[in-house]
Amino acid sequence: MALRNIVKDPDARLRKVCRPVKEITPHILQLLDDMAETMVYADGVGLAAPQVGVLRRVVVIDVGDGLIELINPEIIEFSGEQTGQEGCLSCDDRRGIVTRPNKVTVRAMDRDGNVREITGEGLLARAFCHELDHLEGVLFIDKMSRELEEDEEYFEDEE
Ligand code: ZN
User: Fold this and answer.
1) Fold of 12-158
2) For residues 80 and 100, is the Cβ–Cβ distance under 8 A?
3) From the candidates 131, 147, 149, 156, which is the catalytic residue?
4) 41-72 pLDDT per residue, tens
5) Any catalytic annotation for residue 131?
């Protein structure tokens, strides 16, 4: 495994639509391993391949309940609403308020090529939305209703 450099906004690679993975090659498995290691090292809860400069539809997430690897993920169902604070490893210390669905079901391939459906609520639902947006070249700063000041504290659902 190896750490990869995290691409920072306004790098143009963060604005591209990523291509699907056609075949799970050793190269893709290495990418998954490196992304997980890079995410942990950077103390993030999710990382999408374009954030390490690879324009493929690959995402890793860990909100504290174990590593989730997603290849060619799609949101197939969502419901509810949550409003909360969001940040991004590609946007350094910026944080903003973003409204997302509260419950999201994603269909994706795992590293063995099995198609799985995973439902997440709260933070996991938010991470699914945030990371899948990256695959479309969309960042949370495009969707935030308001940016937080550097030392501002935000309490869930206060606005
Ligand atoms: Zn991000």
Assistant:
1) Peptide Deformylase (3.90.45)
2) no
3) 131
4) 999 999 999 999 999 999 999 999 999 999 99
5) yes
